[in-house]
Write a structure and sequence with these properties.
Chain lengths: 345, 345
DNA sequence: CAGGCCGTGGGTAACGTTTTCCAAAGCTGG
DNA sequence: CCAGCTTTGGAAAACGTTACCCACGGCCTG
């Protein structure tokens, strides 16, 4: 009842009329394009301010850019992803680009739906965080719109990648534990069967890094991997299995903090003390891990750096779609906390 | 180097030509509009499939809708918000609408930026979760685009609201604690000075609910509120202050789970046992609270329901912008866990 | 059998912006 | 003083879709 008449939006035509110039001139000012004198720029800008004009992105998209960047996160609940997002937005600060997030995508179908939706909306570039789709699919997306992939170890000429060195990260944990005197160090991994995923996904790399580190430390015989999933549930089930072993491990390296949460739950249920009787380590350095009473030893991936690099690469690729693709690999760091200590006995 | 030629997108004209009909006809089929025979529908649909056509949202937006809904969350890190998001998307399942999230907005300025960006992109509707902007600002947004506000107790003729009954929620906690024999029940609130916010924001309602419940239980003399902020830091500081009291409380009701986390940290530092020497309760029933080793007593807001209701109201408002506004208020439920027990002595 | 209505289909003008031209005017150097 | 360049500004045609309106035929009704 209050405002039954939705007021018409101010358009570029209104601005042009108000400033007594052509719409072309206004457009040039908006885009900082060549061919406008300083006086005209000032004049147009004043008109824009006076009228409160804002360019309509849908219309811009029809001819040029939409100044929109899409980010796809696999799971908002994982506290590691906001870090990446912060890195992206901080790098985009001051540009005309606006970030929008595609909501929870688990599974290839959902991913396809969201990426298609982003393409349909004419987004200027997209960032895919830990996508599960096939490389073919990723290349298809990247061939249509500038794309940066985070957290996948495959590489392609059509998209850039930013990854954490998961093999090195796993090694950090294993040598930390070995340095504390542990020998029976078990690992809980995310089950993977697809061969390309085994090569590209971070979880597989972590498991691989675990195995390699164990071997290089002369602990090849102690290698013990349980294959569940990167969820709290998965950690719980994995830990149950490990605790049931005749010769149970003295340390568990969970492939992700969320998995470690499940491990801690199972360990508490079994009445074992952490780290006195069993040490537990995670991966990702989430807020969960940092939380005082939990204080989980973990690996920090520098999410902020990852995001900032991804945004930088994306801007570069938007500027030149045919530049050679870049792979950025960042080194993780160990964050020792109170869930790991010297091995018992 | 691989695909230097970005392939032209399939347009409605291509489909029309391929199906040997007019573009108008294709458009009608796309929108399930009146004036197309079943045969034509089938024919057009086949052409769409064969060509892999997808409508270009930017172009649609210029004339009609963009089939895009924007959701603004104040903080992705808060585990309560994904619940709401799930509720929204589940209700939108099967419709043509796609949800996009505006990224982290703390503060009025950021909120304004994101809402403007959504409006500029021609979004068909937007959902604001716990916005901090002034009512005037909210009404302005709502006057331009269909809007639903979640978690604000103010009401307006131009937008619908979905809220949790925070007063009742606070009462649930207080009577739970009183029922366990506690009398010195303290509360940690989010500091608020702005008068309209005091009336509308959930945190203020919770503090108010706490006071009322205390009074109605004959504990008016025991009312003890510390004003910090809804952060882990805030909880920590608030707890420090409470623990320093000559007559320290036997129970602390933190206004949010994240605040309770800080409380637990401070309590652990002080060497007090929970719930033996002091009971702690939160609000929101986040995954944090549900996590076994923490097991925090909390209040569940039925985030999924909240989101689903918001989406429903938004669809209704998109269908009829002038329908009278609706306020939905949901009742919270208590989730007792292991951080609360009988009062000492 | 005339007049009107309904079901079906298409022509065409928007929508708000960018982009590609082109024209005019102001320089420069010979 | 003229030929060519540079700078400044605008006219007009896209971009892909939808909304509005009109035309055509068939059928019902009186």
């Amino acid at each position: 009842m209050e405002p039954p008449a939705p007021p018409r939006r101010v358009t570029i035509v209104d601005v042009a009329r108000h400033a007594q110039v052509s719409t072309t001139a206004v457009s040039k000012v908006l885009r900082n394009a060549y061919g406008a004198s300083p006086e005209m720029r000032a004049r147009v800008r004043r008109a824009i301010d006076e009228l409160g004009y804002r360019p309509y992105a849908a219309a811009r998209g029809l001819r040029g850019q939409t100044y929109t960047i899409g980010v796809m996160l696999p799971d908002i609940r994982n506290p590691f992803f906001p870090e990446i997002l912060d890195g992206i937005t901080s790098r985009l600060q001051g540009t005309d680009y606006q970030v929008f997030l595609g909501p929870g995508c688990n599974g290839e179908k959902e991913e396809a739906r969201v990426t298609e939706a982003m393409i349909d909306r004419g987004m200027d570039g997209i960032v895919l965080v830990a996508p599960v789709s096939s490389p073919t699919r990723l290349e298809h997306v990247a061939s249509v719109v500038p794309t940066v992939v985070i957290g996948r170890h495959g590489c392609s000429p059509v998209y850039d990648t930013v990854t954490d060195d998961d093999v090195a990260g796993a090694a950090l944990i294993v040598s930390h534990l070995a340095g504390l005197g542990h020998r029976r160090i078990a690992h809980i991994e995310h089950h993977e069967t697809d061969p390309t995923r085994i090569a590209e996904m971070p979880n597989a790399q972590r498991a691989d890094g675990y195995r390699r580190a164990m071997r290089s430390l002369g602990l090849a015989d102690e290698i013990d991997v349980v294959s569940t999933s990167y969820t709290q549930q998965g950690g719980y089930r994995g830990a149950k299995e490990l605790l049931g072993r005749p010769h149970r491990p003295t340390a568990v390296f969970a492939g992700a903090d969320i998995v470690a949460m499940g491990v801690l739950e199972a360990v508490a249920e079994a009445g074992l003390s952490v780290p006195g009787e069993i040490s537990v380590a995670g991966y990702d350095n989430t807020t969960f891990a940092a939380f005082g009473p939990i204080s989980l030893t973990s690996v920090d991936q520098a999410g902020h750096e990852i995001g900032a690099n991804a945004a930088r690469l994306l801007l570069e690729r938007i500027a030149d779609r045919h530049k050679p693709s870049v792979q950025v690999r960042l080194s993780p760091t160990l964050v020792p906390r109170r869930t790991t200590s010297a091995a018992p006995e």
